[in-house]
Design brief:
Chain A: Keywords: Membrane, Transmembrane, Transmembrane helix. Chain B: It comes from Paenibacillus solani. Chain B: Keywords: Membrane, Transmembrane, Transmembrane helix. The complex is a heterodimer of chains A (about 260) and B (about 250). With about 260 residues, chain A is mostly helical. Chain A is built from 10 helices and no strands. Chain B is mainly alpha-helical. Chain B has one domain. Chain B contains 11 helices and no strands. The radius of gyration of chain B is 19 Å and the shape is globular. Chain B starts with a helix and ends with a helix. The chains are: A mainly alpha (about 260), B mainly alpha (about 250).
C-alpha cells in the first residue's frame, strides 16, 4: 500500500503529467462538441446517420491522455539525469526502496489504473453536458454498459502503454505507435482491409466496447464509422487478453533484466 | 573573432553533422522508418490489388504510406534538437560555439543534409515497391508525374523534419514535443476536415500534402505544388525563427 501511495505521488509530481490530464479531460469534450455541431446540421437537414456515436467519439480520441500517462509512468523512471546531477536513473532508487520488483510493478500498474479510471470518469462528466447542451433533445442516451466499456478501454490502453514502455525503456516508440493507432488513420483499420485477423488487435477490439454500433450482419448499415465484428463483451475480452499477455512478458523481462542496463 | 566567418560556419556545420551522425537514435529512426514504409507499401498495395484491379493509380497507392511515414521524420527532427537537452550536452555545445544563432541554424542545415537523401530513398522505395507489384494492373503510368511527386514528397518530408526540429527546440523535452506534433498531425488535423475546410489548406500538413499528391479528377487541389511549397516553407521559417529567437534569449 505504501508503494502504491509512493507511485501515485511520483505520478502526480511528473513534469509532463499536466499534458496527460489536459488532453484526457478537455480533448474528449472538444471533440464531442465539434462532432455534435456537425451532427446538428445534419439532423436539421435530415440526413444524420450515426447519432448513436456522437459523444462516444470524444472518448475514442481522449484516450491519448492515458497513453501519455502510461508511457510517462515508466519512461520517467528510465530517464537518465544530466551528468551534473550524477547521471543516475530513478529506477535504481525505486528498486532499492521497494524490495520486490513484482510489487513495484503491481503498485505502478495500480496507480496508473486508478488515475486512468478517474480521468475517464471526469472526461465523461464533461462530455455528457456538452452533447446535451448542443444537441438538446437529440442527444444520445448514455447507456451504462457502454460507459463502463469506455472506462475499460481507457484503463486497458493505459496498461498497454505501460507494458510496452517497460519493454522498450524509452517513451518514443510506444508513444508514436499508440498515438497513431488511436487516431483516425490507425494501422489496425488499414490492416483490417487485408486480413480478418486485424479485428483481434487490441485497439480495434477494444473500441467495440463502446463504439461501432452498426451491425452489418443483422441490420442494414446505420452509418457507423466501421462495422461491428465482435460483441462488446468479446471485444473487451480480446483487449484484456492482450493486456495480460503484454504484462506477463513485460514482468518477466523486467524481473530478469539488470535495472541499470 | 570576426576574421574567418566562412571557416567558422563550415566548422560549426561539420561539428553538427558529426553530432547527428553519431547519435544512435537517428540511425535507428531512419532504418525503422524505411522498414515500416516497405511494410506499409506492401499493405497498401495488397489492399489496392484486392479492391479493384486496374482502377487505381499506382502513384496514389505508392504515396499512401506518406501519412504514416511522416511520423518517423517528426521523431527524427525532435530527436535532433532534444538530444542536446537530455544530458548537459547543450552547455558543452554553447561553451565551444558561443554564437547561438549560428549554431542553431547550422544544426538545421546539418539536419536537412541528412534528411534529404533519407527522405528521397524512403519515398522512392515505397513507389518502387508498388510499381514492381502492380506493373501488370496499374494504369496511368508517366515518368514525369512520378518524378514530380517524388521531389514533392522529399521536400515535404524534409520541411516537416525541420519544422519538428524547431518545435523540439521550443519545447526542449522529447515527450511534450512528440505529443504535440503527433497529436496535431494525426488527431487534430484529420478532425479539421469537417470544421475548417477553408483555412485547412493553409495548415502545414495539408498544404504540404499538395506538394506530392498529383492532381486528379475527383479531388481538386487548392494549391499548386509551387504554392504549397511556399506555404509550408513559410510555416517552417516562422517556427525556425521563433526557435532561434527563444534560443538566444533563454537560459540554457
Amino acid at each position: 500500500m505504501r508503494a502504491f501511495n509512493a507511485e501515485l505521488s511520483k505520478l502526480f509530481s511528473l513534469p509532463g503529467i499536466w499534458l496527460a490530464f489536459l488532453i484526457g479531460v478537455f480533448a474528449p469534450a472538444v471533440v464531442a462538441a465539434l462532432d455534435s455541431l456537425a451532427q446538428k446540421e445534419e439532423i436539421i437537414a435530415g440526413v444524420s446517420t450515426r447519432l448513436s456515436e456522437v459523444g462516444y467519439i470524444g472518448l475514442g480520441f481522449g484516450v491519448q491522455g492515458v497513453i501519455i500517462l502510461g508511457v510517462l509512468a515508466v519512461s520517467s523512471e528510465y530517464l537518465t539525469e544530466s551528468s551534473e546531477s550524477g547521471g543516475g536513473q530513478q529506477i535504481t532508487t525505486s528498486l532499492t526502496v521497494v524490495k520486490s520488483r513484482f510489487h513495484f510493478l503491481l503498485a505502478k500498474a495500480g496507480a496508473v489504473t486508478v488515475i486512468s479510471i478517474l480521468l475517464c470518469i471526469v472526461a465523461m462528466m464533461t462530455i455528457v453536458p456538452t452533447t446535451h447542451l448542443i444537441l438538446g433533445e437529440y442527444a444520445p442516451a448514455f447507456e451504462w454498459t457502454r460507459l463502463i466499456g469506455a472506462v475499460c478501454y481507457w484503463t486497458f490502453t493505459a496498461l498497454l502503454a505501460l507494458g510496452m514502455t517497460l519493454l522498450t525503456k524509452n517513451g518514443i516508440i510506444p508513444l508514436a505507435v499508440l498515438m497513431i493507432n488511436s487516431s483516425v488513420v490507425s494501422f489496425s483499420v488499414l490492416l483490417s482491409k487485408i486480413t480478418k485477423l486485424a479485428f483481434y488487435l487490441p485497439d480495434r477490439a477494444g473500441l467495440e466496447m463502446f463504439m461501432f454500433t452498426s451491425d452489418k450482419f443483422h441490420t442494414p448499415s446505420t452509418g457507423s464509422f466501421f462495422d461491428r465484428f465482435h460483441t462488446p463483451f468479446t471485444g473487451g475480452l480480446v483487449m484484456f487478453a492482450w493486456v495480460v499477455v503484454i504484462f506477463i512478458v513485460a514482468a518477466i523481462v523486467f524481473h530478469r533484466r539488470d535495472a541499470a542496463s | 573573432m570576426r576574421v574567418s566567418s566562412c571557416r567558422k560556419i563550415t566548422q560549426i556545420l561539420r561539428a553538427e553533422l558529426d553530432k547527428l551522425v553519431t547519435l544512435p537514435w537517428i540511425c535507428l529512426t531512419i532504418m525503422g522508418t524505411f522498414i515500416l514504409n516497405l511494410f506499409l507499401a506492401a499493405t497498401f498495395t495488397s489492399a489496392g490489388l484486392q479492391a479493384a484491379a486496374g482502377t487505381q493509380s499506382m502513384l496514389n497507392i505508392g504515396l499512401a504510406s506518406m501519412r504514416y511515414l511522416q511520423a518517423g521524420f517528426i521523431i527524427l527532427g525532435i530527436l535532433a534538437t532534444c538530444s542536446e537537452y537530455t544530458g548537459g550536452q547543450i552547455r558543452t555545445t554553447l561553451t565551444t560555439i558561443p554564437w547561438r544563432g549560428f549554431q542553431l541554424s547550422m544544426k538545421y542545415l546539418a539536419l536537412a543534409v541528412i534528411t534529404l537523401p533519407a527522405a528521397f530513398i524512403i519515398a522512392a522505395s515505397g513507389i518502387l515497391y508498388t510499381f514492381i507489384m502492380m506493373r501488370d494492373t496499374a494504369v496511368g503510368f508517366e515518368i514525369d508525374t512520378i518524378i514530380e511527386a517524388l521531389v514533392g514528397a522529399t521536400g515535404y518530408l524534409t520541411l516537416t523534419t525541420l519544422l519538428s526540429a524547431a518545435m523540439g527546440a521550443l519545447f526542449r523535452r522529447t515527450t511534450p514535443a512528440l505529443v504535440v506534433l503527433l497529436g496535431y498531425y494525426f488527431v487534430v488535423s484529420p478532425l479539421t476536415i469537417d470544421f475548417l475546410p477553408k483555412f485547412r489548406s493553409y495548415f502545414p500538413d495539408t498544404a504540404g500534402s499538395y506538394m506530392y499528391i498529383p492532381p486528379s479528377a475527383d479531388e481538386i487541389n487548392v494549391l499548386t505544388p509551387i504554392q504549397a511549397t511556399g506555404v509550408l516553407m513559410l510555416w517552417t521559417l516562422i517556427f525556425i525563427t521563433a526557435a532561434i529567437v527563444f534560443y538566444r534569449r533563454r537560459d540554457a
